[in-house]
Amino acid sequence: MKTKKTVFYLLVLLLAGCLPSLHPLYNDETLIFKEELIGKWMEEDGSFWQFRKAGEKEYKLRLFEEHEELGQFSAHLIEIEGLIFLDIFPDSDALENMDDFYQIHFLPVHTFLKVDRIKPNLQLRMIDYEKMGNMLENDPNILKHEISDDRIVLTASTEELQHFVIKHVETIFGDAPDDSSGATRLEPLYTEKDVVFDPNFIGQWKSEDGSVLNSKSVDKNTYELMLVDNDGAEHKIFANLIRHRDELFMAVFADKAELEPDKSSAYSFHLIPDWFFRIEKTESELILQKTDYKQISQILRNNILSSKLQPMDNSWCFKGTRIEP
Asked: Where are any strands of DSSP class E within 149-233?
């Protein structure tokens, strides 16, 4: 299920305005690696970019929005004539896990972004699809491409792409953002000492709409949660419980590997979850209330009681009664 969703979202990303290319923007001479890109970055809309080191000059990129992961990619930084760009490509593991028949009908592509800066906030700009479309319509020979289902697909070589991007960089990427915009690097809001274990959190609960949440312990202080919707769809996540004063919170991770301390860098991914939930009850009834990073930051970092803040987001709340063995 996860692989099919990843492929779907890759197609959505492409159709949303990205300009796909059959060939990468990088070659061995232009690849660079910057340690400061490693981390988890949050956009104003609550979406995230997460970069891990995957090789000497390669990153593993996770993209996810407020409610679910969108996909995983291989990412490379490129420097050409003093300008820095980002090339992203679907993660090879996801492609290998596809059904063979489905895989042969899916052609992975590269997309490019201009990196305006990494510190203190990450500023990325995609190629403006409309501007590129106008340029190619006015001069079809300016860059090799094909039109497939009314969509532009670049077919130029890496060298041709590099030459074109540098020559037209000020046009195809649009105006530079102001200094205050961009994604903010997330830092841990709690420590390992705040992680607790609650045996009451183990069990099964059924909500009024028929969905079932099953929680079990899989490691020290780590839970595996399986939510089965009333239509039978399954969603697996992993979690730690965080105790702050007299309140209990759930730190949720889409990938269990995220809970392991990062050995390739000093960045504490295992202390920066993908989502936060406030836990109101864990016994005969389980109530989980989703909250955002801004509110959880005030609670955990600024030591403010949640009762003194505005009501939390009701867009996702689980209320269920325990299913007795």
From this structure: 151-154, 183-185, 195-196, 203-207, 212-219, 222-228
Q: Is 94 helix (H, G, I), strand (E, B) or coil?
A: helix
Per DSSP, 17 falls in state T
| C-alpha 32, offset from chain centre | 22
CA distance to 46, 69, 137, per residue, from 65 (Å): 6, 6, 34
**Residue 161, H or E segment:** helix 158-167
Q: Backbone dihedral region of 211: left (phi > 0), alpha (psi from -120 to 50 degrees) or beta? A: beta
Q: Report pLDDT digits (tens) over 198-244.
A: 999 999 999 989 999 999 999 889 999 999 998 888 989 999 999 98
By DSSP bridging, strand 195-196 and strand 203-207 are unpaired
3-state secondary structure of 175: coil
In DSSP notation, 243-308 reads EETTEEEEEEESSGGGGSPPSSSS--GGGS-SEEEEEEEESSEEEEEEE-HHHHHHHHTS---GGG
- pTM score of the predicted model: 0.85
pLDDT at residue number 6: 38
Q: Which two tokens stand for residue 287?
A: 């109530």
Amino acid (one-letter) located at 237 = I
The confidence score (pLDDT) of residue 72 equals: 85
Q: What is the pLDDT of residues 164-187, one digit of tens each?
A: 999 999 999 877 777 767 899 999
Strand bridging mode 222-228 / 317-322: unpaired
Q: Which of the four pLDDT bands, split at 50, 70 and 90, describes residue 313?
A: low
What is the DSSP code (8-state) at residue 167? H
| Residues with Cβ within 8 Å of residue 231, at least 6 apart in sequence | none
Rounded to whole angstroms, the Cα distance separating 261 from 188 reads 13
Q: Find all residues with CB under 8 Å of 276, minimum gap 6, and list them.
A: 249, 250, 251, 252, 290, 291, 292, 293, 296
Please write down the long-range contacts of 223-231, taking CB distance under 8 Å and 24 or more positions apart.
Answer: 224/256, 225/252, 227/318
114 DSSP β-pair partners: 85, 125
